Amino acid sequence: MAQSIFKCISCFKEYDIEEIQYRCDCGDLLEVMHDLESAIPNPQSYKKSLDSGMAKIAFNRYKSILFPSLPDSSIITLSEGNTPLYDVTHSFPQFNSIKLKHEGMNPTLSFKDRGMVSGVSWANHLGCEKVICASTGDTSAAMAAYAGATPNMKGIVLLPKGKISPEQLAQPISFGALTVGVETDFDGCMKLVQQLIEKHNMYLLNSMNSVRIEGQKAISIETLHQLNWKVPDWFIIPVGNAGNISALGKGLRELYELGIIDKLPRLAGIQTEGASPLYKSFQNGYLELIPQKAKPTKASAIQIGNPVSYKKSVRELIHFKGIVEVVSEMEIMDWKAQIDRLGISICPNSAVAVAGAMKLNRNGIIKENEDVVVILTAHGSKFSNTSVEYHKSSVNQFANQTLSITPNLETLENALNL
Ligand code: F0G
């Protein structure tokens, strides 16, 4: 079986993968490194083998690049992956092509399932009985589900009280996790959970745990596979804690290093105006991260002021000639309405990325001859209140107001203009 190790992203110190380790002794983040050349000696036959493995669940299909050293017998899956890549170019002819990779079509309705299949499977392999995370709602839902699917594993989730949607709150509760509302924001929960795991024997499943990142690489790998390995010019992704953009970059880098793809796309990370620490750092030439108090936003899953994976994300942004942009609350909800209207139900966090793609196109940064893939991170059904509120008000440009009538045929005919 191919070997994997943890390696510090700053000082390159290496650690045994079988040890529980989140940060290097120097304090920086670790990443998982695999002996991919042994796992995939021949890129051409690898591509062929992937096509014949289409019936498999996504994690198993891509396992030799995602996490070759994870034993098959430890895998906990809920059949995540195989998510649709919608071509919506017909509605947006200002792009050469624009496709939406809908990660909201995963079992717990967000991309977090991709990372939990590796994170919880690894916890299962290590024999961990308690897994824990801080969350803005989606990590907690996914972790609780995968812990629920594992024999002898208890999930514990820390949530910023009153700051997540009712649907997101219902998920960890129903999946049997111990659910703790903390009177703080996400950054406060994240700080608390890091203090807790210093003292107690619990396995942390935030994306600070680099094992999670390995599963999330499947998003870019599966997208490229769906595109028959034709690399788009851009990947656009919303950014909160900055784990997903780091995973996107790592997956693409590994595909390129293996010779499976022959070109690198550019990356665009998109944030909200009120929660934009990465954007501010980008404007500053990535000199430093200045943590901020993130302001409330409809995109509540990315209301984060101190992204844990900041350094990893900057490394990927530089490698992929990336840029960072921000969008307003109105842009988020107007673009959400326009994508929902196509029958593709998206959450406000995903709409941040769509709005970003549109803004970059309007500003001439994404050219009209370029191919774009936007990563949609969660399903609209997780945030139904935001849709109901938006469509109530005629002030909103794309509102589809409901009619309310008494049960009378004539009234109905009048209401329908018949
Ligand atoms: N979109 C959604 C729907 C999310 O839930 C998150 C993060 C992101 C985008 C941003 O991804 O943090 O890797 O940059 N949600 C985390 C959570 C923070 O706890 O569910 P990121």
List the helices and strands and how they pair.
Layout: E1 4-8, E2 14-16, E3 30-34, H1 36-39, H2 43-52, H3 58-61, H4 63-66, E4 85-87, E5 97-102, H5 112-126, E6 130-134, H6 138-148, E7 154-160, H7 166-174, E8 178-182, H8 186-199, E9 203-204, H9 210-216, H10 218-226, E10 234-238, H11 243-257, E11 266-272, H12 277-283, H13 310-319, E12 323-327, H14 329-340, H15 348-362, E13 371-376, H16 384-392, H17 409-415
Parallel strand pairs: 5-13, 6-7, 6-9, 7-8, 10-11, 10-13, 11-12
Antiparallel strand pairs: 1-2, 1-3, 4-5
The chain binds ligand F0G.
- Looking at CATH, which topology of the domain at 85-109 and 212-392 would you report? Rossmann fold
The Cα radius of gyration reads 21 Å
Strand order of the largest sheet: 4-5-13-10-11-12
Which stretches of 5+ consecutive residues score pLDDT under 50? none
Level of helix content?
25-40%
Structural class computed from helices and strand pairing: alpha/beta
**Portion in beta strands:** 15-25%
The CATH class of the domain at 85-109 and 212-392 is identified as Alpha Beta
Compute the number of helices. Answer: 17
Shape: globular
The count of strands amounts to 13
Can you give the mean pLDDT?
A: 97
Supply the CATH architecture of the domain at 85-109 and 212-392.
3-Layer(aba) Sandwich
The termini sit apart by 70 Å
The biggest beta sheet reads: 6 strands, mixed
Order of helices and strands: EEEHHHHEEHEHEHEHEHHEHEHHEHHEHH
What ligand molecules are bound, each kind once?
ligand F0G
Q: Give the oligomer, counting copies of the same chain as homo and different chains as hetero.
A: single chain
